[in-house]
Design brief:
By secondary structure, the protein is mostly helical. 62% of the residues lie in helices and 0% in strands. The protein folds into two domains: 35-92, Homeodomain-like (Arc Repressor Mutant, subunit A, Orthogonal Bundle); 95-219, Tetracycline Repressor, domain 2 (Orthogonal Bundle), CATH 1.10.357.10. The chain has eleven helices and no strands. GO terms for molecular function: DNA binding. It holds the Pfam family TetR_N.
């Protein structure tokens, strides 16, 4: 059998294709062995319960069942992961907020908004309260961009609520004396209060009674 050796006169370009393949380095890296959606769901639970600043990378990797290189490769850094989690949270647990705006009357909009909020905040299978509030209550300078991301989402939602109430005014569903933006802000403040009360241990019935008082103050 003829042996081919590599010397100064022989280059890789002169080798047969079959030998080039044999001399190629082995493939590096392994296929991802976890479900990104499942890992993201677990990360959401951690951020929701502990807040952004209260959550360490070790907390996340332990809950998600992955190591740090896998976390960075799939989701980016901690902040990027939190943004993805907030996207998931907005499309999932708190999708009811925008869904409620499709109700036929403003009264039904607000009733559904509060009813669904109580159901979420008091769900025994989920962390208490709203992740968008609990997650960034103690924002430091280092987390300013995270806080701003959550704030921008809240402002956008409040704007959509105001637009729905403005339509209600135009349709005669609300008195013309009502300021749509003020009403939207008022409801967001109530929702924030319900979230904090739930995180402090208020039960479903207590939250429902608070909602009952809130509904009595509304202009319909």
């Amino acid at each position: 059998m003829k042996v081919i050796t590599l010397d100064k006169q022989t280059s890789m370009n002169n080798l047969p294709i079959s030998m080039k393949k044999d001399l190629s380095p082995p493939c590096v890296g392994r296929p991802r062995c976890f479900d990104p959606e499942e890992a993201l769901e677990k990360a959401m639970q951690v951020f929701w319960k502990q807040g952004y600043e209260g959550t360490s990378l070790s907390d996340l990797t332990e809950a998600m069942g992955i190591n740090r290189p896998s976390l960075y490769a799939t989701f980016g850094n901690k902040e990027a992961l939190f943004v993805k989690v907030m996207d998931r949270y907005s499309a999932g647990p708190v999708a009811y907020v925008l869904d409620s705006l499709n109700e036929p009357t403003v009264k039904k909009v607000i009733e559904k908004l509060f009813a669904d909020a109580v159901s979420l905040f008091a769900d025994p299978d989920l962390p208490r309260g709203c992740m968008g509030i609990q997650g960034v209550l103690c924002g430091s300078k280092e987390t300013a961009s995270v806080v701003e991301n959550v704030r921008a989402r809240r402002v956008a939602t409040q704007k959509k609520m105001a637009e729905r109430f403005e339509r209600g005014i135009q349709e005669g569903d609300l008195p013309s004396s009502v300021n749509a933006e003020d009403l939207a802000r008022h409801l967001v403040i109530i929702l924030n209060g319900l979230s904090i009360q739930a995180s402090n241990g208020a039960c479903r019935e207590e939250l429902k009674r608070a909602v009952g008082f809130a509904l009595q103050s509304l202009p319909f």
